[in-house]
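@channel sequence for tomorrow's demo:
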Amino acid sequence: MAVSTTGFQNIFKVPELKRRVLIALGFLAVYRIGVHIPTPGVDGAALAEFFERNRNTIFGIFDMFSGGALENFSVFALGIMPYISASIILQLLTVVFPHLERLSKEGEQGKKKITQYTRYGTIVLSIIQGFGIAIGLENMAGPGGAQVVMNPGWSFRLLTMITLTSGTAFIMWLGEQISERGIGNGMSLIIFSGIVARMPQAIGNTFQMMSTGTMGIFAIVILLVLMVAVIGFINFVEQGQRRIPVQYAKRVVGRRMYGGQSTHLPLKINSSGVIPPIFASSLIMFPATIASFFKDVAFMQYISEALRPGAFLYELLYVAFIFFFCYFYTAIVFDPAKVADNMKKYGGFIPGIRPGKRTADYIDRVLTRITLGGALYISAVCVLPSVLMTQFNVPFYFGGTALLIVVGVAMDTVSQIESHLITRSYEGFLSGGGRIKGRR
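structure tokens (generated this afternoon):
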């Protein structure tokens, strides 16, 4: 399908959509400005040298999610990861505590209450991580043994903890404002903007390595082909569906007859979206970051090396967490029993399957199988390119995880824009009647 140029022009013909897009871009611009505001008390040159030596470690991944804020040690250095970690904890606790489970089923009011708990959890995690990072920075040394922290002590630790916590709280507010008043998912767009903003620098570093002979032209060509292939594969699978046929029986209401039509129940191969790799990365980052600050301890040094991207233990845990969150998040967003009850209520049934529990079991069985395929797909996209890139000594971390996030978030955002346009009788981005299938 070709991209329609009039599709982009139509955005500015719809006042509501135009306002939402401009608001989202404005908030993202504020975030990018904040990435370059440094936290006081840190030697920027020493910290930059440290990151140069640890580009392909867990710090590189953390810096990718923070959009370069950690390398600059800006007020947004913690990024959105504390919020994501708090969301993981709340969703896991929903399964354990009946009170949270009841809130999750109470509609909009329950959702607001869980969001409030998530905010509190984000602040607590930000305080803990900010204090830990402050202590870790005091143990770091730059070139020639120069200390990264100019004036270590409790004043620096408290100032850093308060600054980073405030920065994360502000990012959380920005993300919520984008979701509510802008277009797309605010938290995902913040991560998306951070990855995309670092692409020019990454491309420049690659060509610099090619000019110095550190990286050959053949390796760059293979890297480009791999990235294009991964992007195409992501586009193909993200729009893949398993369509279960549904037949609605004829019903007589008064003097009119309803129903009798055939339709289908679309089940996406990857119904969990980019959530599994983001959640998996955030869980691995926490112990790996703590261990990297205590390299004088032999056990901590072993953990830090074992959780380095490309290491066997890191990739094994990464794949395991991806599988877990694929099934866990799919179970949260899709309830086969509820779908089966709604079908039965309106006279719908799957041919050859008895309505009610049998239908729910059938949908659950199909969903389990396609989720396995989705988990294998996400694992392949996130792990294989990253392993190959470590072998090619690529000077930036823009592996499969980043590509999946960029392509997935872009498709979801474009899908929302298309929905606004088509609702108002405008054509979408694709000419020829095509549409981008979002995950919602």
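heads up for whoever presents: The chain has 18 helices and five strands.
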